[in-house]
Amino acid sequence: MPYRTIAAVTLALGLAVAAGPATAADPAQPATPYDGLKKTVSVDQFLATEAVGGTVTAAGMTAMLTAALVKDGRFVVVERPGMASVLAEQALGQAGATTAETAAKASQLIGAGTIVRGAVTKFEPAASGSGVSVGLPMGSLGSLGSLFAAGAGLKSHTAVMEITLRLIDTTTGQVLSTSTAQGAANSTAADVTIVNPNSGASLGAGGFQTTPIGQAGEQAIINAVEQIAAGMRGVPWSALVIDANDGKVYVNAGAERNVQAGMILNVYRKGKVFTDPATGVVLDVDMDKIGVIRIDGVREKLSTAAVVSGETPVRGNLLKLN
Question: pLDDT digit string (tens) for 290-318?
Answer without folding.
Answer: 999 999 999 998 999 999 999 999 998 99
